[in-house]
Amino acid sequence: MRNIFAIAQKELKAYFASPIAYVVIGLFALLFGYFYSAILSFFLRQSLQVGQFGFGGPTTINVNQHLIRPLMLQTNFLILIVMPMVTMRSYSEEKRSGTIELLLTSPVSDWHIILGKFAGAMALYGMMLATTLLHIGFLFIYGEPEWMPVAISYVGLLLLGGCFVSVGLLISSMTRNQAVSGIATTLVFLLLWVTPWMADSAGPVTREVLVYLSIIEHFEDFSRGVLDTKHVVYYLSFITFGLFLTAKSVESERWRS
Amino acid sequence: MIEVQHLTKVYGAVTAVDNISFRVEPGEILGLLGPNGAGKTTTMRVLTGYIPATEGKAIVAGFDVFEQPIEAKRRTGYLPETPPLYPEMTVREYLTFVARINGVSSNDRQRLVGSSMERTRVDHIADRHCGKLSKGYRQRVGLAQAIMHNPDVLILDEPTAGLDPKQIIETRELIKGLAGDHTIILSTHILPEVSQTCQRIVIINRGVVVAEDKPDNLTARLRGAETVSLQIDAGSADPASALLAVDGVTSVTVNSQDSGVVSAEVETVQGRDLRRDLARTVVTNGWGLLELKSMRMSLEEIFLDLTTEEIEPEHENPDWKNTDQAESGTTNA
C-alpha cells in the first residue's frame, strides 16, 4: 500500500510539473462551464414556459431530471475528450526516458506500479470533477435539487472515469510514444462511445450484447440517481479487466525487451 | 553473493547470452568486459530482475532472482546505462522517492538520502531539478540512487560514462570504497578502469564467457610465456647464444643491432622469473646491461585477443608473415 501511495504521489506531481494537469483541468472546466450554461438556459426557458402555460400539469420542473441529468450525460463526452491526455504519458514516458527500468528493478510488484499509476490518474480526474462542484453548488443555493441523485451521478462518473483510465493505461503500456498512445486511446474511447449506436442497427441478440457491453449505457441509471449494483459490478469488472490486461502487457514487455 | 548458473537469454532468433556461469564473492568487485552487443547489459538486466532469462539460474544475496524477485531486488542497487531520473523532480525528491519504493522507513529516509548525496557529492545540487543536470551530475545522482538504500549487491552499467577525468577518478575511488561492504558488478568499455577498480574480470564476447580471472593472472595466462626485453652493449660479440644457454629460456629474438648495442626479447617458460639469471649472464660476459624489463600483455591486448575475430586464412598475406619472420631473426632453444 505504501508503494502504491508513493507511485501515485509521484504520478500526480508529474502531471502538475508539466502543463498536462493545467490544460486538462482548464479544458474540462471550460467545456463543462459551457454545457452548464447552455443546459441551464434551456432549463430556465422550459421553466418559464411551464410556469406560464402550465399544460395542465405541475408548474415547476425537476432540477435533477431536467438539468443535472443532461449535464452529467454531457460530462461523459467531456471525459472522453480529456482523459487520453491524462493517461497517454503514464507508461509511454517511463519507457521513453528509461525510468521504467528504475520501477521494474525496485522491490515493488507490477501490480503496485499499475495501481499507483491508476490512483494518480484517478486523483487528477477527481480534481477535474471537483471543479464542477462549484456549478452544482450554485444549483443548491438557488434551487432545491435532491442531493442523493447528484451524489450517485458523481459515483457513476468516477466509475466511468476509472474505466477510461484502465483502458488508457493499457494502451500507454503498449507504446513508448506519447502521441501514438494519446491518439489510440481517443480512438478506442470513441469506439466505446459509439457502441450503442452500432447496437441500433444490429440484430436482437447482438444488440443486447452490444448494449450490455457499452460503458455509456450503464451510466444511464447513475444519471437518473439510481444506484444499481449490476452497473457498479460491471464498471468494477471493466476496471479490473483493464488493469489485468495492463499487467499482462507490462509482463510481455519484459519478455520482449 | 552473486551466482549465475548456465544463464541463457534469447531474443527471437538472437541469443544475447549463451549459457554463461560465474560467481562473485562477498565484498568483491567484478568487472564485466566485452565489446558492444556482447551481452553485458542483458546479463545485468537479468540479474536485476528487469528481464527474465530464457534458461538458467541467477542468485543474488541468497535469493533466486526469478523465484524471489522482490527479496533479491530489495538487496540490489542498480545503475542502468542511462540514469533513470525523473526530470520534474529535484535530486532530493527523486532520492526520497527511490527510498520510499525501496521500503526505507520514514525514520531512516532523510539520513540515507543525505548520506548518499554526500558520498556521491551531489549534496550541493539537492534542490536542483534532475532535468536540468549535466551528464556528469545525472550519472552521480544515478549512482546515489543505486547505493542509497545500502544494498548488499551493486550492479553498475558503465558507471563512469560521460564523466570528466576528475569525476571518473572520484567515482572509481567511491566504487573501490564501497567494496567490502557491498558486492559489485560493473561493466565498462574503459579497460584501465577494470584493472584499477576490479579484483576480477569476466570477459564476454557474443554472449559467451571467454575469460574469467584476476587481471594479473589473465595477462600471464594469455601470454602463455613470460617475455623479458634486454638492451645490451655487447661490442662485437653475439649475446644470443649466451642468453639462450640460460636455464628456462625458450627463445631469443634479436630485434636490432646497432654500434654494438643489441636489443633482444627473451622468452622464458611460464611462471619463472629469469631476470636475475639473465642480468648475471650479461655481467659475467663483461657486457654492459643498458636495459632489462619484463614485458606483460596489456589488458587492451588481452581484450582484443579474446574478442576480435581471427583473420580468415585466405585473407592473410603469406609474404608479410615471411618478411616478419625473416626480419626478426628468431633463435629457438
Task: Kindly list the characteristics that best describe this protein.
heterodimer; A: 257 residues; mainly alpha; globular; B: 333 residues; alpha/beta; Rossmann fold; Alpha-Beta Plaits; 2 domains; 6-stranded mixed beta sheet; 12 helices; 29% strand; elongated
CATH topology of the largest domain in chain B: Rossmann fold
Calculate the terminal CA-CA distance of chain A, rounded to whole Å: 28 Å
Gross morphology of chain B: elongated
Please summarize the sheet with the most strands of chain A. none
Count of distinct strands of chain A: 0
What can you see in these coordinates?
- The complex is a heterodimer of chains A (257) and B (333).
- With 257 residues, chain A is mainly α.
- Chain A has one domain.
- Helix content of chain A is 82%, strand content 0%.
- Chain A has 12 helices and no strands.
- In chain A, helix 6 packs across helix 8, helix 6 crosses helix 12 and helix 8 crosses helix 9.
- With 333 residues, chain B is an alpha/beta fold.
- Chain B has 2 domains: 218 residues, Rossmann fold; 110 residues, 2-Layer Sandwich (Alpha-Beta Plaits), CATH 3.30.70.
- Chain B is 35% helix and 29% strand.
- In chain B, a hairpin with a 2-residue loop joins strand 9 and strand 10.
- In chain B, helix 3 packs across helix 4.
- Chains A and B meet through helix 1, helix 5 and helix 12 of A and helix 2 and helix 3 of B.
Please outline what is shown here.
Chain A is mainly alpha-helical and 257 residues long. Chain A has 12 helices and no strands. Chain A is 82% helix and 0% strand.
Give the helix/strand layout.
The complex is a heterodimer of chains A (257) and B (333).
Chain A: H1 2-17, H2 20-53, H3 63-87, H4 92-97, H5 100-104, H6 110-130, H7 132-142, H8 147-172, H9 178-200, H10 204-213, H11 219-224, H12 229-256
Helix pairs in contact in A: 1-6, 2-3, 2-6, 3-8, 3-9, 6-8, 6-12, 8-9, 8-12, 9-10
Chain B: E1 2-11, E2 14-24, E3 29-33, H1 40-47, E4 55-60, E5 63-64, H2 69-74, E6 76-79, H3 91-101, H4 106-119, H5 135-147, E7 153-157, H6 165-178, E8 183-188, H7 191-197, E9 200-205, E10 208-213, H8 215-223, E11 226-233, H9 240-244, E12 249-258, E13 261-268, H10 275-284, E14 288-295, H11 299-307, H12 318-328, E15 330-332
Parallel strand pairs in B: 3-8, 3-9, 6-7, 7-8
Antiparallel strand pairs in B: 1-2, 1-4, 4-5, 9-10, 11-13, 11-14, 12-13, 12-15
